[in-house]
Every structure is written in structure tokens, then in C-alpha cells.
Automatic annotation (TrEMBL):
Keyword entries, A-Z: Coiled coil, Membrane, Transmembrane, Transmembrane helix
Record-annotated membrane-spanning stretches: 467-489, 512-531, 543-567, 612-635
Name the UniProt record assigns to this protein: Uncharacterized protein
Coiled coil: 306-337
Lineage, opening ranks: Bacteria, Bacillati, Mycoplasmatota, Mollicutes, Acholeplasmatales
Length: 671
């Protein structure tokens, strides 16, 4: 196969392409497009090509994981010791187990480098290569990197196995590596992949055959007993087997599933053979590699002389071992007894759905969950800060599907405050993020969780909002100046004096004071709007409402700017959404935290406090203005003349002597 590297060049139709630049575009081609392209040109890919890429990409991560787990009786750590003999399906699943965006991207890059060499070696025409490069250029503009899991599923139809192999390995290699390093779920996925019909349960005849074989071995089988058992249903047969200490179950064992796959898959059906004993499933990694080495060297041993047989055999084994040494991870095999694993993914899915339903229910009513309602006075406890992702990791670290190097999100990095006695449990909420359209692809490629669109949000453009706020502030200053010029602030007894300087206003007329009040009101309204425009991004309805008012009460340009800003397109809001069951459980628990008596976020509390202070200030200011206006009307209006004669609690004389005279210089305008 032609060996390419990213620093090399490829000449097509007289034009030179750098491999690194081509690969940077090709990785954006979806798997289904690649599969269609290969089918159109009539070319398939050997499965071992993908296996080689996956082994190179995953090798360092696997070595690190084995090193981290070597001191633990860990099932996943033991499975990874078989990494050098993994099948294609096991390698593909291992890539997804790490849940690493960087590993997935590296895999796509390495895959395309190797695939380019394969295309050139197979003599793909220059026109077909140019078409592929053009498709890559178009795909790059989307900025959406294919998910590695989906990509591998979509190219499955254009992969092929060598003769006598299945899933990239021989029958002899397939048995031990799948028995030791695969779960039942993974085996059934391999079954679906190669269309081998595996029954989920043993049939009645198969259970009967097992019982009859055991009875025959014990010498207990008679013709009458055989006829009796043949007439019983499967439940009675299982009961009979249990009563007579015969190991039988309708559930297929792992080795039975493996044999079903090998005997029914079209890749191995013709060459299938029944293993001599169950010992083939108990081989260790070094035994499998040893048998592989002996196969490679057998042809060489036949050509050497008898007297030098041992010497040549030793040298050949050493040479072959050196050649395959790069692919073998020589780690100490953990000699422990491991129980057969159970697939918990369905349970995770059900738990996630249950938590999501609880989150919806808690939105309607708040609850306080007490860990321990008994309060101890003698021994007060301190709150313990823990990470919610760490809680899930500790609870589920024994499960094979749970990632080792879980990357906490922004929400999970916020501490969960747990009061051990008599306190509520608070869990922080993961805040949705706003993602711009041109950045969506980068977020999808790098984020550990795929983002989903949760809604739209309108926010007035920042620059336009500031400019409108500036004009609103200018309007408020002008209205304030108008009110101050009209309003005699120094001494209400000098109305005639002030009126001499303002010949176009008659301050002795009540209509003038309507203008004063109106100017003060418009000053306050424009000032409030200016503050809102500077501090808060208005919603669309607010922008339209205040814009219409400003057209009439402020600078027309202010209202015009706000109306223009209200036509801005609403921006989509994206929220990270985990695809696996465990991630959904973490997200559901985070959602529950909003109504479990947890503390409010600091930012939200601060905003509410600021709004409350502003409203209190505004109400006080309005009350003061209203009181002054009422006092002025009492002093100015005709029908209020004689108010000082009110004798209830001596209110009239007190109002005249302590307030009216001090403000206006005399008890009434007519006096």
C-alpha cells in the first residue's frame, strides 16, 4: 500500500496537493457520502485497514489506562490486555468508550491518510480523485465534523474481510478474544453486523438434548424416561434439570453465542469447524500470540535441514516476535477470576427517563429533601463540598460503559453543598449557552456532548442599545432643564420676580404647573429608559413599546433606533445534551436541583436585589413629588382657601405654620 504522510504531496491532473491540507478537508465528508462514492467507483476497503488505524490511534491511551488500572481487580483493565488481538468491532467500540473528541478527530485524520494511499494504490482515476477533493471542499464549509460512531456505522457496507476471517481475525483468534474481552451485548452487536441468526433462548429440543446427554453419561437414561421427558414442555424440563443437578439454562452462554456467529456468518460458514474442547476459550494473550507466531514460521521450518531445525526455529521465532512486537502490548496479565459482565445500558436509559419525569414534576412544586431530619446540637456538622460528576463517577466506576476520564462540564464544576444533618441538598443547574451559527460546527466537534437547540432568544444589539440609551439620556436632560427653568425652585414667594425673567410663562397660572409636572415626568421616564438601555438588553416587545413612546416623548431618533433594533433576528440557544445513559442521568439530576431547595445563583439574586432597590427609590421619588404637588395645589387653588381653619387634631394651623408658609412664604396664594 502507498504510504502517505501529512507532510507529503499528491499530484493530480498536473496540480500538486499537500496531503495535510487535503486531509483537513476530507475529514468533514460524512460516512454515507464516502460509502456512496466508493460504491460508485466499484471499490471496497479491507477491514484491516480500519483496524490498523484504530490500533495506532488508541495504543497510547490503552497503555495509559492499563497502567492506571493495573493495581485494581478491574474487568475493563483486564480486557484491555487483549488490545493487540482485538477484532474490528471491539476497536470501534473502544474508541467510543473513551468519549474523546480529540481521539475521534485524530482517528478521522489517520483514516483518510491511509485511505488516500489505498485509493492511489488501487489505481482510482484522477477524475474520481478530483471529484472526491471537490466534495471535501464543499463539506468543509459546513464546519460540522462527523461523529466517529456514525461514520464507522455508515462505511460498514464497503468494508470486507479476507477469506476465512470474520471481523478482521481468524476463527482461532476470534474465539478467545471475544470470550475474554467482549460483553454479551457486544457479541450480539457483532451478530447483527454479520447477519448471523442467534436465538436469544435455547429451544425445547436443545434443552432436552443437554438433559439426555447428562443422563446417558450417568447411566440413568431409560427408554421410558426419554419418552416421558420428550412429552414435557420447556418449563418442566428446566425444573427436572434443576431437581437432578443438571446444569442447563434457556439463556445462551457466551461461548454458545460465539459458535452461533461462526457457524452462521457467511464469512466463516464454509470453513467453520467445531472446537476440539472448551480450552480454546481459556487461552491467554501470550498463548494466542504464540500460536500466531508458529503459523507464520511453519513454512520456514519445512525448508531448513534437520540438524539445524532447532537453531533456525529459535531465530525465526525471534525475528517474527520482533516484527509483531510493535503491535503487542506486553503487560502482565491479571490472573483473577472475573464474573461475566452485565450490560446496564437499558437500566441507565430507564433511570434517565425517570429522572427527566421527576424534573418536570418538580417544576410545578418546590420540595425540600432532608438527608437526616434529626438535628444534633452537640455535634454540629460542616457542609461538605463535592462535585456532582464525581458522585456519579464513584457510584458507577465499576461499570464498563462508564468513561474513565470523565470531563466535568461547567455546571458540574460548581460544588454541590451537602449538609449531613437537617439541611437540604442543592444541585447546580447547567446553564444553556448561546452559540452563533458560524461557530456551531466547532462546538459540535469539540464538545463532549452534542448540542441541541432548545429555543430562541431576542436581544437588542449592544451597540444600537447603547446609542439609543445615549439619546434617551440626552432627552431626559432636556426635559429636566425645561422643568427647572419653569419651576421656581428658590422661593415660591418670588413668583413675580421669576416671572420677570421668563416673560413667555405666567407662573401664576395653574396650566404652567401642568407643564412643570409633565416635564418632570418625562425626565424620569427618559432617565429610566436610558438606564435600562445601558444595563439591560431589552426584549422585542419592550423595545417596540418604548420605541413608540419615545417617538412622541423624546428624541425621535431614540424611538427610531429602538424600533429598528426590534427587527433583529432572534438568536438560537443551544444546550449540551449527552447521548449516553450515564450522561443523561447526570443532566437529569442537575435539572432536579432547581427545585430541591438549593440556593439561588449569585448572579440571579444580585439582579433581583438591584431591581428591588431601584423600584423602592422610584416609588419614594414619586411619593415625594406627589406630596409636593398636593401642597402646591392646597396653596394655589381657590377652593382650598381657609384650610387653616381645620381644627381636627389642630391639623390646619400645623400645616399652615410648619409647611405651607415655610415653602411658599405665606399661607395661601390669595392671602
Amino acid at each position: 500500500m502507498a504510504q502517505f504522510d501529512k507532510g507529503g504531496h499528491l499530484i493530480v491532473k498536473g496540480k500538486q496537493y499537500q496531503i495535510g491540507d487535503l486531509v483537513g478537508k476530507l475529514i468533514y465528508i460524512p460516512g454515507n457520502h464516502l460509502a456512496n462514492y466508493l460504491q460508485d467507483i466499484g471499490l471496497n476497503i479491507p477491514r484491516k485497514l480500519r483496524m490498523g488505524v484504530l490500533k495506532n490511534v488508541l495504543r497510547q491511551s490503552v497503555e495509559k489506562t492499563i497502567e492506571e488500572r493495573k493495581s485494581l481487580a478491574d474487568e475493563m483493565g483486564y480486557r484491555l490486555t487483549w488490545f493487540s488481538r482485538y477484532t474490528d468491532s471491539q476497536l470501534v467500540n473502544l474508541l467510543e468508550w473513551y468519549k474523546s473528541p480529540s481521539l475521534s478527530r485524530k482517528y478521522l485524520e489517520e483514516f483518510w491518510v491511509v485511505l488516500l494511499g489505498h485509493l492511489v494504490e488501487k489505481g482510482v482515476s484522477e477524475n474520481d480523485l478530483l471529484y472526491l477533493f471537490e466534495e471535501a471542499t464543499k463539506a468543509e464549509t459546513t464546519h460540522v465534523l462527523p461523529q466517529s460512531k456514525q461514520f464507522n456505522q455508515q462505511i460498514e457496507d464497503v468494508l470486507y474481510d479476507e477469506k476465512g476471517e470474520i471481523d478482521g481475525v481468524t476463527q482461532d483468534a476470534f474465539r478467545p478474544v471475544t470470550y475474554k474481552a467482549s460483553t454479551l451485548t457486544e457479541l450480539r452487536a457483532i451478530d447483527d453486523k454479520f447477519d448471523a441468526p442467534i436465538p436469544k433462548r435455547l429451544k425445547k429440543q436443545e434443552v432436552l438434548d443437554i438433559i439426555l446427554v447428562k443422563l446417558r453419561e450417568r447411566g440413568q437414561l431409560t427408554r421410558e424416561l426419554e419418552d416421558k421427558l420428550s412429552g414435557q414442555n420447556i418449563l418442566l424440563l428446566e425444573r427436572y434439570a434443576k431437581d437432578n443437578d443438571i446444569k442447563v439454562s434457556t439463556e445462551l452462554k457466551k461461548e454458545e453465542i460465539i459458535e452461533y456467529i461462526l457457524s452462521n456468518a457467511k464469512e466463516t460458514k464454509e470453513a467453520y469447524f467445531v472446537p476440539a474442547s472448551s480450552a480454546v476459550y481459556e487461552k491467554q494473550v501470550d498463548e494466542v500470540e504464540e500460536s500466531f507466531t508458529s503459523e507464520v514460521t511453519s513454512n520456514l521450518e519445512e525448508t531448513v535441514q534437520e540438524e539445524k531445525m532447532e537453531e533456525v526455529k529459535e531465530e525465526t521465532k525471534e525475528e517474527v516476535k520482533e516484527e509483531i512486537k510493535q503491535e503487542v502490548i506486553e503487560k502482565e496479565v491479571v490472573k483473577e477470576v472475573y464474573r461475566e459482565s452485565v450490560d446496564y445500558k437499558p437500566e441507565f436509559e430507564r433511570l434517565a427517563k425517570a429522572f427527566e419525569q421527576l424534573a418536570v414534576a418538580f417544576e410545578k412544586k418546590e420540595f425540600v429533601v432532608n438527608i437526616n431530619p434529626v438535628v444534633s446540637i452537640d455535634e454540629p456538622t460542616k457542609p461538605v463540598q463535592v462535585d456532582n460528576a464525581q458522585i456519579i463517577k464513584e457510584l458507577l466506576k465499576e461499570e464498563e460503559d462508564f468513561p474513565v476520564n470523565i470531563q466535568p462540564t461547567q455546571a458540574s464544576q460548581q460544588p454541590v453543598v451537602v449538609q449531613q444533618i437537617g439541611e437540604a441538598l442543592g444541585v447546580p443547574v447547567q446553564t444553556p449557552v448561546e452559540v452563533k451559527k458560524n461557530k456551531k460546527g466547532e462546538v459540535v466537534a469539540e464538545a463532549p456532548f452534542a448540542p441541541i437547540k432548545v429555543g430562541k432568544q431576542f436581544k437588542m444589539a449592544k451597540g444600537l442599545s447603547k446609542l439609543a440609551g445615549l439619546f434617551a439620556l440626552l432627552s431626559s436632560i432636556i426635559w429636566l432643564a425645561f422643568a427647572v427653568v419653569v419651576l421656581p425652585i428658590e422661593n415660591f414667594s418670588q413668583l413675580d420676580f421669576i416671572n420677570g425673567y421668563i416673560p413667555f410663562y405666567d407662573l401664576t397660572q395653574i396650566n404652567v404647573w401642568y407643564l412643570v409636572g409633565g416635564g418632570a415626568f418625562l425626565f424620569l421616564m427618559n432617565l429610566i429608559l436610558a438606564i435600562r438601555l445601558f444595563k439591560v438588553k431589552l426584549k422585542r416587545a419592550s423595545a417596540i413599546f418604548f420605541g413608540i413612546i419615545e417617538l412622541a416623548t423624546g428624541f425621535g431618533i431614540t424611538g427610531l433606533l429602538m424600533l429598528i433594533g426590534s427587527f433583529r433576528k432572534a438568536q438560537p440557544i443551544y444546550k449540551p445534551h449527552p447521548q449516553d445513559g450515564v450522561g443523561r442521568i447526570v443532566e437529569a439530576i442537575n435539572n432536579l436541583g432547581t427545585n430541591l431547595g438549593g440556593k439561588k445563583q449569585k448572579g440571579e439574586s444580585g439582579k433581583k436585589a438591584g431591581r428591588a432597590i431601584f423600584m423602592i427609590f422610584f416609588v419614594i421619588l414619586a411619593i415625594v413629588f406627589a406630596v409636593l404637588l398636593i401642597l402646591f395645589l392646597i396653596w394655589r387653588l381657590d377652593f382650598t382657601y381657609g384650610y387653616e381653619n381645620i381644627e381636627v387634631m389642630n391639623f390646619g394651623p400645623w400645616l399652615r405654620d410648619n409647611i405651607i408658609i415655610k415653602l411658599f412664604g405665606k399661607s395661601h396664594f390669595k392671602s
